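Per reviewer request, we include the raw input and output of the structure prediction for the construct analysed in the revised manuscript.
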Amino acid sequence: MPVKKRRKISRKAVTSLIIDNIVWVIGSAMYSVAIVCFALPNEIAQSGTSGLAIIINHLLGTPIGLTNLVLNIPLIILAWIFIGWKFVSKTLWVTVILSALLDILNPVMPAYKGDPLLAALFCGAISGVGLAVVIMRGATTGGTDIIGKLVRRAFPHVTIGRIIMVTDAFIIVLAAVVFKNAESALYAAVVMFVSSQTMDYFLYGTGHGKMLMVFTNHADAVAKEITGRTKRGVSIIPAKGGYTGELKSMLLCVVRSSEVHKINKIVRSVDEKTFTIIAEANEVIGEGFKAFTSDL
């Protein structure tokens, strides 16, 4: 019987994996610091499973990280069944990293017990940066992200954003009841707002997208991979090198900043000799970006 050749892992893939893990650790560490230094000492429940873990910690004294991991396990199993292993694998790994860091940093990091409003602002800002860093490398921290995707599978007409908003609102109200403090819910709302604004800034910049101009000899193949794996549209424009006179094609694609890394990996997987220009798109109006509104 013919012996199957083992697929070799390229040095570039190994390097990318190492960078991914370093960035995931940094992002998870920032998120953990936000919780143990600001949210936990001031009884401010974060959104998602980490907020639920804070509530359970208050009631039972269980470790936050371990509780967060246990809460995510059934969600991850369901996601594995209904969504697929590619989404689950990264999410599971980042959830393990985050949960471990929560329990490692909790006993050693200083707790801020001053002005709760300042605690909420700093918690939102630091956790927002941490989440944005994780998302930019193609992963999530689980929790309500998984719930959103699972519910949308059953009810496609409901947006993921609305599902996450309802879930987070329930956790915040529950925290106010458990902590017996209405202000806890109000400060949690501040954390959510600041965190989301911070994430948007880091993921999308001052504008709302990035414009990629990709010069390649394999335009059709590259365009097919981009549209198939990201659902983003691509325009193919004929191009001629001014110095070499060589005829090529330029792919024009507008994406969100968080998608740039993924698009680059897709392009390089088809043609390693591409020449790519990435520019800021200050405002993008159309499907998948900003909706058109008339000033009239």
